[in-house]
Write a structure and sequence with these properties.
- By secondary structure, the protein is an alpha+beta fold.
- About 35% of the residues lie in helices and about 15% in strands.
- Strand 1 and strand 2 (about 10) form a beta hairpin.
- The strands form three sheets. Strands 6-5-7-8 form a four-stranded mixed sheet, with helices on both faces. Strands 1-2 form a two-stranded antiparallel sheet. It has a two-stranded antiparallel ribbon with strand order 3-4.
- The protein is globular.
Length: about 160
């Protein structure tokens, strides 16, 4: 807003911008329970997925055609059946997302959940490749060197 001062000068008065609250990222390991005031340990709550079967679980967007094609590719190149699959939208998928420190509604990327660790996005893809038949484990090894090489070459 401008105000006119003597001698024809204008004074510009600027109000402070409103504070914008940044959305809090949920802490998936310990988050409030909607039913009670206590917390849920999502690693413990989802540990039953690995009691009888220690194979990793690939989480994917169950309504995405590209993602379904990726699942078919993994299934076709995993003759030993090293990887299990679960849709991100399923209840199990949501629990595993929270175990992986992700929001249960986050269906933005592929996630690979192992018993003790989770991998997200390109890291998940490279880890999935390690479980597939030849030549994919070797290809994953060389692809892991690419970011390292680009970092060293750029220095």
């Amino acid at each position: 807003m401008a105000a006119l001062l003597p001698h024809g000068c204008a004074q510009l008065k600027i109000s402070r911008p409103a504070q914008v609250r940044q959305p809090r990222r949920p802490n998936a390991t310990l988050s409030p329970s909607p039913l009670r005031g206590d917390t849920i340990d999502w690693v413990e709550a989802s540990s039953s997925f690995f009691h009888n079967d220690t194979r990793p679980i690939m989480l994917f967007d169950g309504v995405c055609n590209l993602c379904n094609g990726g699942v078919r590719f993994v299934r076709d190149n995993d003759h030993k059946r090293n990887i299990r699959f679960e849709a991100l939208q399923s209840e199990s998928g949501k629990k595993l997302l929270q175990r992986s420190s992700r929001s249960p509604d986050d269906i933005s990327s592929v996630v690979l959940v192992e018993k003790d660790r989770s991998y997200i996005k390109s890291e998940a893809v490279l880890k999935i490749m390690e479980y597939l038949d030849l030549p994919f484990p070797q290809l994953a090894f060389f692809l892991q060197l690419v970011p390292f090489y680009l970092t060293v070459a750029g220095s």
